[in-house]
Amino acid sequence: MKAFTYERAETITRAAAAAVKPGTKFIAGGTNLLDLMKLQVETPSQLVDINRLPLDKIEDTSDGGLRIGATVRNSDLAADPRVRRRYGVLSRALLSGASAQLRNKATTGGNLLQRTRCYYFYDVTKPCNKREPGSGCAALGGFNRIHAVLGTSELCIATHPSDMAVAMRALDANVETLDAEGKARSIPIADFHRFPARTPQIETMLKPGEIVTAVTLPPPPPGTQIYRKVRDRASYAFALVSVAAIVDAAGGRIRSARLAFGGLASKPWRVAQAEERLAGASADAEAFDGAANAVLDGARGYGHNDFKVPLARRTLRAVLTEATRA
Amino acid sequence: MDNDDRRVRVTRRTVLESGTATAALMLTGFPEVALSAEPLSDKAVAPVAVDLQINGQSHTLHLDPRTTLLDALREHLALTGSKKGCDHGQCGACTVLLDGRRINSCLTLAVMHDGQSITTIEGLADGATLHPLQAAFIAHDGCQCGYCTSGQICSAAGMLGESRAGMPSYVTADLAEARPELTDAEIRERMSGNICRCAAYPNIVAAIREAAGTPT
Ligand SMILES: Cc1cc2nc3c(=O)[nH]c(=O)nc-3n(C[C@H](O)[C@H](O)[C@H](O)COP(=O)(O)OP(=O)(O)OC[C@H]3O[C@@H](n4cnc5c(N)ncnc54)[C@H](O)[C@@H]3O)c2cc1C
Ligand code: SF4
Ligand code: FES
Ligand code: FES
Predict the structure, then answer these.
(1) Nearest ligand by distance to the CA of B83
(2) Which of A85, A140, A227, B63 could link B67 by a cystine bridge, Cβ 3.0 to 4.6 Å?
(3) Coil, strand, or helix at residue A247?
(4) What are the helix (H) ranges across A155-271?
(5) Which overall architecture, per CATH, does domain A224-325 show?
(6) Can you count the helices (H) and strands (E) in chain A?
(7) How far away, in angstroms, is B179 Cα from ligand 4 center?
(8) CATH number of this structure's domain B67-212, picked from the four choices 3.30.70.120, 1.10.240.10, 3.40.50.1100, 1.10.150.120
């Protein structure tokens, strides 16, 4: 780990102001940042500890939704009675991630901003455009079993590893922030993470110093909520493919459906056309396949990860079958 | 620095930068001396004072901010019960309780916990009376080589607290249920953050099942 100075932020405004200094990183749970600092993938010269800021509450909003503070621990969010009852897809997605020990530290903000698990990103001896812009992408011609099949560029094919963000995408969450000048804004989660395009090193819409203060959830839409995660072992493993679904169906007919996917792209993947096709359709294999076609339109494998395309299709079929079972 | 050089000269800087603390300990058998034998490099930062309540006792340490909680325990306080398996949150051998909740001590900095309480495996027993989990691990032969055991026991202690508080797990069928029953499937899922290379899992689950029925 490279040397850094450590500061504990006393106020949110102070944290954002301190973080404009180049080389500064916020530290929340530390479960991703310290992992990367030990390998010198991340080498901040200053850490601003945000753990004692008053951002650890989950509050009801006036419109019937929830406001989740940025330092709420993943375990507390998953166990919150309101989340368990009304946002089951989020609770289940959180509980599918990492381990209980890690969830006790991991925060809402840190989870959203965790970085890819691409092996070459972690290995500082390998070329990686995300870690070192312009150096190349070792994954393109290397082992790319865990990599993306949608929204990639010729510079980077990494996925975003978060389960929580996939559920939040299905729930149309908003990310609330405060910038270094003290200005607040709200970013729809659909826009929060970016595609790699020409700049894979820029992963979100956040500006330097901008701090995530909360994530807000609108009232839950009607329907059955499911989070299904497919991985190499039954627990304590990242998703190869995951599906967050909220499906309102009755009598063999689908009224509405929301579908977000993890493990496929640099951000949670959601396709409006797939959902439009399902709305009003009868709950059968043909409709499920039509939705899968829309979701996977333009998907391409890079060799080792070719299996993700049929896996995503089958996982979606399984989820829709379960959600529409009478 | 080439490999040979590294083998004979482990400085505080190499330890903190590359995480070779275990190597230092194996080489010298006495970490504190080895670590302070060389002056801090100009790139290092001044030590920071950190107050930690560990197993009910307060300690003030002066630490390089890079020091993880695990290294503070092992290298600065000689509390070597917490183990370093992977140093990356992937095994659970370093599990301790922070204000009663289980965490991986390898993925957090000691400075972040100024003023907080930590319980390690050394602090679980009540004098000569073993913690029910410790007794159950012995009764059920819940360890083979023993390397993962302190992490397993601290993790199980945290897990039983979570279960009693009604927290759900990924395998809980009905998330709305206020207090999911602690079945074997629940124990396995809730303990998945602790890897046992010897695969003593059946006996670990049996030990935890027994201790779950014992009030603490
Ligand atoms: C072994 C292992 C297995 C895992 N498995 C999974 C899994 O299956 N699924 C999954 O989803 N995740 C998994 N994770 C990742 C885990 O969920 C993340 O490490 C965690 O959520 C990060 O949160 P944190 O608070 O610890 O972030 P930190 O490590 O503190 O921070 C991460 C990043 O976010 C930035 N940041 C933090 N808070 C803010 C804020 N409020 N505003 C702006 N920037 C901020 C930091 O500067 C840093 O760049 C795993 C991790 C490990 C180590
Ligand atoms: S896929 Fe992206 S993160 Fe992985 S090596 Fe290529 S550029 Fe780096
Ligand atoms: S040493 Fe901390 S999880 Fe392995
Ligand atoms: S007993 Fe050997 S690793 Fe668990």
Answers:
(1) 3
(2) B63
(3) strand
(4) 164-170, 189-192
(5) 2-Layer Sandwich (3.30)
(6) 13, 11
(7) 31
(8) 1.10.150.120
Question: Which residue type occupies B66?
Answer: R
- Strands in A253-262's sheet, in edge-to-edge order, are A224-230, A241-250, A253-262
Take residue B85 and report the two structure tokens written for it: 């398996």
Q: Which atom of ligand 2 lies at the shortest distance from residue A144's CA?
A: 1
Whole-model pTM: value is: 0.94
Nearest-angstrom CA–CA distance, A94 and A111 = 10
The ipTM of this complex is 0.97
Residues A260/A123, Cβ–Cβ less than 8 Å: no
Residue A25 Cα to ligand 1 middle (Å): 13
Q: CB–CB of A35 and B88 under 8 A?
A: yes
d(CA B28, CA A238): 38
Structure confidence at residue B24 (pLDDT): 37
Residue appearing with tokens 């890897």 = B195
Domain map of chain A by residue range? 224-325
| DSSP H or E stretch at residue A276 | helix A272-278
Cβ neighbours around A184 below 10 Å, total: 11
pLDDT tens digits, one per residue of B39-60: 444 456 899 999 999 999 999 9
Average pLDDT, chain A: 98
Nearest CA in chain B to A9: B112
Q: Which two tokens stand for residue B112?
A: 């972040």
Nearest to A1 among B17, B178, B190 (CB): B17
Q: Tokens representing B64?
A: 């390089």
pLDDT single digits (tens) B80-117: 999 999 999 999 999 999 999 999 999 999 999 999 99
